[in-house]
């Protein structure tokens, strides 16, 4: 067995070199490797390397952590089973007697595992039937080395999308946005019809002008001035009429198209805002910005310019065809001879362009994603001196974008000249057959001249239509990406008949609440009864489900099991916006918008007076530092609050929540970003502010929750303890251990600080 034989399979060529000598020693003479999988987990799910091979004769394996090799010859009852669970892939080799071997691997190897099973099934069946396996070469992704199908050009792992080709029919879905403009569209279409008809007049007038004026003049007859004036007046009048009608239809239809594009952008953005946090968790910011911005703009340009040209071309071709057949059917038939070939070429190239342009859109999304990551995170980039790394990421994405565009341009560069060649060929056919018809006396020179003029327009429009194929496919790709947003149904739906939320007391009840992220259970069987005006604290280790529980109460996500009640009514029965208006939320990571301090404070209540804004800022102990800013409450804050300290941003966030005077106040690590002195000030303010409000607080420092009416201790998504601080301390249970562990850390920090001094 040679090294070349080992590399014969695409997946094999990507194995680390350390396996090659060992594999070669295990193979017998003439035995070839069909596929291989490097497993990376042992039986205890610890990281360790092993390998499984499928050859044309048997299965070979070396388990992680072992030095010996195992071998199983192909048999009819031998089966290789593949499944995954909780992020771990499993392969099991079994026969009628039971399990022979089992291997585990991380899901990054899953595509290689699928390929291994395919090769196993093929060679086992070949061994049983005697029919040789037809070798199918497969390429690999240059980035992650995953095997690709023969016609697959993009890696499903790297693109992280389920690929479905866009269809030109997607553009017809835009008709729903044209509904409000039916009258304008009808008027514009009528103008287009009249304008196209006006363009048909001049070539027809060349027939009498040629046969009754020019040819008789060449034969010695005098020129009839009145007849010339009549025909010339007709040419001028038709030109002016075509200009006026063309201006009118272009203006009307362009206005309508722009409004359709604007409505599309608005509805897409509105729908995006109504989607749940779950949707945004799986999307890149740059990709969504690209869809709403550049993709909708591309559709708008298509509707306002190219679609109008396409419709005009279609009308011109139809009218020209009718006129040609009315003049001379045989000559018209020869005129349309290249048309089937052009139609076939357009059909073939359209499919390639359709898939290519969507690929370009996704690759361009990679470029915008780099920008969306880097620019907001520029402080982190500079802090870790990763400018060159981010520049390299951008160059790589830009190079990928260039390569995909180059590949598509190869197709388009051949298509467009080919259509032009066929149109020129069509005109040549007309000349040849037309001269023959004139020589036989079947048509006049004037008729041939008119045919040439009409044919030039016919093929000119046909060539223009073929060029619009590119724009149409780009727009179809853009429409598909926008409708991917519009078709997505929120996982937090609005109720069909919402319950009116008139007065809120603030009683919150959780009944056997459970929640899952995919297959992972985060919260299970949580039942808590929070009375109106009560303050409870949620405590527990990181990952115990505290923030998830708050997200469920805010209805950022809907519960997977159980129900959350507000004043005895399921919160899923309320309109989402009505329900959230009664919640004041202060997040662990405060977010400020670009604008003034006053605008950020009044974000939840835009109609708030300056006095109300100042009162909220005073309550959050933010008034003093705001007055020290150059323009006070009118001072501009940079994007995401740049220019303010973490504590200052947090206090503005607290004031913003307090300004709406909510009945329910949720503090998610609200004081984690402030110093001890500021924390004390905020705590003193909160003691008064929580009066009359149902308050749910999460705090890293347990000492800040001592004045809570009740503490709820979470561990691994379930409630393990509940009670007041003193009561929980006396039990010496989970809360006691948390408190003591934190106290020891504080003491250690103080001792270390003292020793350094």
From TrEMBL:
Gene3D superfamilies: ABC transporter type 1, transmembrane domain (1.20.1560.10), P-loop containing nucleotide triphosphate hydrolases (3.40.50.300). It is a multi-pass membrane protein. The chain crosses the membrane at residues 183-205, 225-245, 299-324, 330-349, 414-436. Keywords: ATP-binding, Cell membrane, Membrane, Nucleotide-binding, Transmembrane, Transmembrane helix, Transport. It comes from Rugamonas rivuli. Residues 187-474 form the ABC transmembrane type-1 domain. Coiled coil: none annotated. It is found in: Cell membrane. GO terms for cellular component: plasma membrane. It comes from the Bacteria. Its main location: membrane. Residues 508-741 form the ABC transporter domain. InterPro entries: AAA+_ATPase (IPR003593), ABC1_TM_dom (IPR011527), ABC1_TM_sf (IPR036640), ABC_transporter-like_ATP-bd (IPR003439), ABC_transporter-like_CS (IPR017871), P-loop_NTPase (IPR027417), Type_1_exporter (IPR039421). One of its GO terms (molecular function) is ATP hydrolysis activity. This is ATP-binding cassette domain-containing protein.
């Amino acid at each position: 067995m040679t090294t070349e034989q080992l590399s014969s399979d695409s997946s094999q060529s990507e194995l680390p070199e350390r396996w090659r000598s060992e594999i070669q020693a295990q193979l017998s003479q003439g035995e070839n490797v069909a596929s291989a999988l490097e497993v990376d987990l042992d039986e205890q799910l610890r990281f360790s390397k092993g390998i499984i091979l499928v050859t044309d004769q048997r299965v070979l394996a070396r388990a992680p952590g072992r030095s010996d090799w195992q071998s199983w010859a192909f048999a009819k009852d031998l089966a290789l089973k593949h499944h995954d669970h909780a992020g771990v892939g499993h392969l099991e080799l079994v026969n009628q007697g039971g399990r022979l071997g089992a291997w585990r691997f991380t899901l990054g190897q899953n595509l290689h595992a699928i390929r291994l099973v395919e090769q196993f099934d093929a060679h086992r069946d070949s061994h049983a039937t005697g029919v040789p396996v037809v070798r199918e070469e497969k390429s690999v992704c240059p980035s992650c080395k995953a095997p690709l199908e023969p016609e697959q050009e993009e890696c499903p792992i790297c693109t992280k999308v389920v690929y479905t080709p866009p269809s030109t029919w997607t553009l017809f879905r835009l008709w729903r946005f044209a509904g409000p403009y039916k009258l304008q569209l009808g008027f514009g279409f009528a103008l287009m019809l009249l304008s196209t008809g006006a363009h048909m007049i001049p070539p027809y007038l060349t027939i009498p002008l040629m046969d009754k004026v020019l040819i008789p003049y060449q034969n010695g007859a005098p020129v009839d001035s009145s007849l010339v004036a009549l025909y010339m007046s007709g040419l001028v009048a038709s030109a002016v009429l075509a200009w006026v009608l063309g201006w009118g239809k272009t203006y009307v239809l362009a206005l309508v198209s722009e409004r359709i594009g604007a409505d599309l952008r608005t509805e897409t953005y509105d729908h995006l805002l109504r989607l749940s946090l779950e949707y945004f968790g799986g999307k890149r910011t740059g990709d969504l910005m690209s869809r709403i911005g550049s993709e909708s703009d591309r559709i708008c340009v298509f509707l306002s310019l190219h679609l109008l040209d396409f419709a005009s071309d279609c009308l011109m071709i139809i009218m020209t065809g009718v006129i040609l057949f009315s003049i001379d059917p045989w000559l018209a038939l020869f005129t349309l001879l290249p048309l089937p070939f052009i139609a076939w070429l357009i059909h073939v190239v359209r499919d390639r362009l359709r898939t290519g342009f969507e690929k370009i859109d996704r690759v361009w999304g990679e470029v915008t994603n780099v920008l969306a990551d880097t620019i907001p995170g520029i402080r982190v980039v500079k802090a870790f001196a990763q400018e060159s790394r981010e520049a390299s990421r951008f160059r790589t994405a830009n190079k990928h974008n260039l390569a995909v565009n180059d590949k598509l341009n190869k197709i388009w560069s051949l298509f467009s000249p080919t259509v032009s060649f066929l149109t020129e060929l069509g005109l040549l056919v007309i000349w040849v057959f037309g001269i023959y018809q004139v020589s036989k006396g079947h048509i006049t020179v004037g008729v041939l001249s008119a045919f040439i003029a009409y044919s030039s327009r016919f093929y000119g429009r046909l060539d223009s239509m073929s060029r619009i194929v590119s724009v149409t496919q780009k727009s179809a790709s853009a429409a598909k990406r926008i409708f991917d947003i519009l078709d997505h149904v929120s996982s937090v739906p609005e109720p069909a008949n919402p319950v009116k939320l008139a007065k809120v007391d603030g009683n919150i009840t959780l009944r056997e609440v459970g929640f899952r992220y995919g297959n992972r259970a985060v919260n299970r069987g949580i039942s808590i009864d929070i009375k109106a005006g009560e303050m409870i604290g949620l405590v527990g280790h990181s990952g115990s489900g505290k923030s998830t529980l708050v997200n469920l109460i805010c209805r950022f996500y809907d519960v997977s099991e159980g129900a959350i009640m507000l004043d005895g009514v399921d919160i899923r029965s309320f309109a989402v916006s009505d329900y959230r208006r009664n919640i004041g939320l202060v997040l662990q990571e405060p977010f400020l918008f670009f604008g003034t301090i006053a605008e950020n404070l009044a974000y939840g209540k835009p109609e708030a007076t300056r006095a109300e804004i100042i009162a909220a800022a005073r309550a959050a102990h933010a008034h003093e530092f705001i007055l020290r800013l150059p323009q006070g409450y009118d001072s501009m804050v940079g994007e995401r609050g740049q220019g303010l300290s973490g504590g200052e941003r947090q206090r503005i966030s607290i004031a913003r929540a307090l300004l709406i005077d909510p009945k329910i106040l949720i503090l998610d690590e609200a004081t984690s970003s402030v110093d001890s002195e500021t924390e004390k000030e905020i705590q003193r303010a909160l003691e008064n502010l929580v009066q009359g409000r149902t308050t749910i607080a999460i705090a890293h420092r347990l000492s800040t929750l001592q004045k809570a009416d009740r503490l709820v201790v979470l561990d691994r998504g379930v409630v393990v303890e509940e009670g007041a601080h003193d009561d929980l301390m006396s039990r010496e249970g989970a809360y006691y251990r948390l408190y003591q562990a934190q106290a020891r850390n504080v003491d250690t920090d103080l001792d270390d600080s003292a020793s350094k001094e």
